[in-house]
Amino acid sequence: MLRKKTNGVARRPQRTTLLSEAANATVDRRAFLRGSGLAIGGLAAIAATGGAVKPASAAAGAVSGNVETIKSVCTHCSVGCSVVAEVSNGVWTGQEPGWDSPFNLGAHCAKGASVREHAHGERRLKYPMKKEGGEWKRISWEQAINEIGDGMTSIREESGPDSVYWLGSAKHNNEQAYLFRKFAAYWGTNNVDHQARICHSTTVAGVANTWGYGAMTNSYNDIHNSKAIFMIGSNAAEAHPISLLHILKAKEENNAPVIVCDPRFTRTAAHADEYVRFRPGTDVALVWGILYHIFENGWEDKEFIRTRVWGMDQIRDEVAKWTPEEVERVTGTPGEQLRRVAKTLANNRPGTVIWCMGGTQHTNGNNNTRAYCVLQLALGNMGTTGGGTNIFRGHDNVQGATDLGVLSHTLPGYYGLSNGAWGHWARVWGEDPEWLAGQFGSITGADGKEKSLQNLTGIPVSRWIDGILEEKDNMDQNDNVRAMVLWGHAPNSQTRQVEMKTAMEKLDMLVVIDPYPTVSAVLHDRTDGVYLLPACTQFETRGSVTASNRSLQWRDKVVDPLFESKTDHEIIGLLAKKFGFADRFFRNIEMEDEVTPNVESVTREFNSGLWTIGYTGQSPERIKLHMANQHTFDRTTLKAVGGPADGDYYGLPWPCWGTADMKHPGTPNLYDMSKSVADGGLTFRARFGVERDGDNLLAEGVYSKDSEIKDGYPEFTMQMLMDLGWDGDLTADERAAIDAVAGPKTNWKTDLSGGIQRVAIKHGCAPFGNAKARAVVWTFPDPVPTHREPLYTPRRDLVADYPTYEDRKFYRLPTMYASIQKNDFSKDYPIILTSGRLVEYEGGGDETRSNPWLAELQQDMFVEIHPRDANNLGVRDGSQVWVEGPEGGKVKVMAMVTERVGEGVAFMPFHFGGHFQGQDLRAKYPEGADPYVLGESCNTAQTYGYDSVTQMQETKSTLCKIMPA
Ligand code: SF4
């Protein structure tokens, strides 16, 4: 289908030629697209719609040659690169990278450089469709909303609100993500979640439980100050390409050694000074193997540990077991190499630690993330510029969607699901808490008492298929999931595709809301009950987006919604109206029409409630001011030097404390005590009490600059202000607002005036207290991070020493561990299977495989096999092979024979879909909406396995067998 372009003609001259022609002639939209090289089959798709699809608004208008530039943000990863779109008469004609952006400095990777084609995408869904009698039929929005709404209402009446699952998206902007979580609350379920569950949930849980907040502590730019860069499970060169700008700057200017630990010699590893290969699934053993040398040689930062860390002695006891010999036995990495790594880290401080999904997607992923944190605590690398844990998030707004609470275990701002948390949000929404509670179902607990499902964590996205397939008597809800809404979610990014197909076929109703049909449209053999609703891309609306470093940026709308697509917030409005709660849902929000909320007004509503993480100071006006003045921000510190945002940090990285009027500048590096809190400094959060086993959990005699309390202190409450004699600093309005919540018991998280935060900061204190980080999380299954063999391990000799967990039930579902690991699959499935990203594609790949410029670059799904394995199996490079997992799922892919992987390890990328167990599903897509490139999803061969705290899926260490096809 695709042809390699060989003439090498750059796009820019093509567009210039086109525009100069356009200045003298009338050019319609088709001519624009054809002239810009886009018309690869896409125009036929338009024709196939019967010609009734709404063209871009400028299609019939004359092109004047006037080009308007509009600033937006790339939609393909969390680096947050600025895109400057060139728009002529409403048609997006060209694009440039943002040269002023401190994040990308005029650079783009292939994905960012081709986002125009993503928005204009000829392979998009163009109008609502429904599958009826095995055929896709075009329907109106009105019919779609009515039928979907009526169907869901029936399911709700028969089975309760939890039988409808709302799967949201890291592609939504912050405003849409917030409305989505609020919508699930008004519908009456916690069966709501999004991709963060399956990319960094173990990071969020592990990191937040170590020192307070579950996010990247520093920034891409702050890496400029690093003296060493330690990367584990991160292939940033492909997953976050522009981050390499910052990493390589430190490597060149600071002579910072780059250490890359990965089972696979990645493109990132190619930049490393030290490449450490280790067996997939042994991160804890590897990190303890490094820490072993640090402790043995006394290289740890003893004063930092004494004053700011609790529990390091227990870590020391565990690490002592990880002698170089034992580490080599478990990880395969020579002890001498790890001694060299330890010495490098000790001699080059501060260093940063970077990790991604190679570390998070494991049954013990929360142990991995905490082990990485402990390494940094031991070295004293936290709370300092150049140090920190720089955790690179995946999707462009996965940080924001996580912060806004599109998760089955929290409300926006990580408020949890307790009655107190619901009470807080009911106050923000102006809602009657009784009415809200009445929307939810209940179950009878083991003690015979009724329990509201409002307070019980919902089913996570990793397990929605079990919500459909599990025996309902085994679940902590009244009935199975009967309707699925996949709203901006690629199902092929999830494991167990064979069971997913069965689950999709068992549903009463499957609703897909997305700019593209996604694999959800074709994986199953359903003939009825499937709806595809076309959502806009982020270039057809406006709103805020949070980059991995916690900075908020604003996207302006580039073009009006194309075809019959609607913005996600309008679709939420349509459903709220259909279900009869639109008036109360939008009661505090300005509306642009009956169902479309004003985006800025939504920002202001979440500003008024997200006190926990300081999403309160980033008003739309402040974020827009930063976007308009990007050039005034320093490219390393991110601080504005003069200009209208003087003193602010770019994008007001959260926490941006207090109200916008307080003008807090944002917090560039978390837990940095060398700055006052008013200027972005911070302490570790006092989140876990003040005492443990008789030990003081608060900081020992250390505090942030300008703090009037010269020691550790707990989180602020109104009572604490009164005890300190600082309550007189509150205004009368603040005092009234505090009294209206809980009087002296009101704390910094529930005070809707922001007065408690303001006064604490006025006295130099962090509203959330000043405590030690905890190296031991006593509330987790493994308080001290522990190595545990994967469920599907080839190392049967290690199972007795390092067994997995016992089976248990959490997040409403039975979850298997030991009952899988007790079986030896390694004889029949001897090769370890791992997965990862490619630079050309993103996520499940529907958007990027539908983009002609990207699709051209990578047309075949493949598996990497070591030459020794390939030769032993009789597999030649470029030949077709079957890769089969121990649960029976198998994929037919091309073999790439390469030493990138070690012996006994195979790697597959996870962006492909549209083939299933050797079958090409292209004919099942709606006509003209099939991605250019299809291929097997690696997750068809991937297996069961979920993190012991968050239900993160295991995709990095399972087993397979490979056979010539
Ligand atoms: Fe930048 Fe990421 Fe977009 Fe590439 S995909 S241009 S690195 S934001």
TrEMBL record:
Annotated EC: 1.1.99.33
SUPFAM superfamilies: ADC-like, Formate dehydrogenase/DMSO reductase, domains 1-3
Keywords: 4Fe-4S, Iron, Iron-sulfur, Metal-binding, Molybdenum, Oxidoreductase, Signal
Compartment(s) of residence: Cell envelope
Family the entry assigns: Belongs to the prokaryotic molybdopterin-containing oxidoreductase family.
Lineage, opening ranks: Bacteria, Pseudomonadati, Pseudomonadota, Alphaproteobacteria, Rhodobacterales
Annotated GO MF terms: 4 iron, 4 sulfur cluster binding; electron transfer activity; molybdenum ion binding; molybdopterin cofactor binding; oxidoreductase activity
Main location: other
Co-factor requirement: Mo-bis(molybdopterin guanine dinucleotide); [4Fe-4S] cluster
Organism of this sequence: Thalassobacter stenotrophicus
Protein's name according to its UniProt entry: Formate dehydrogenase H
CDD domains referenced in this protein's UniProt entry, alphabetically: MopB_CT_Formate-Dh-Na-like
GO biological process: anaerobic respiration
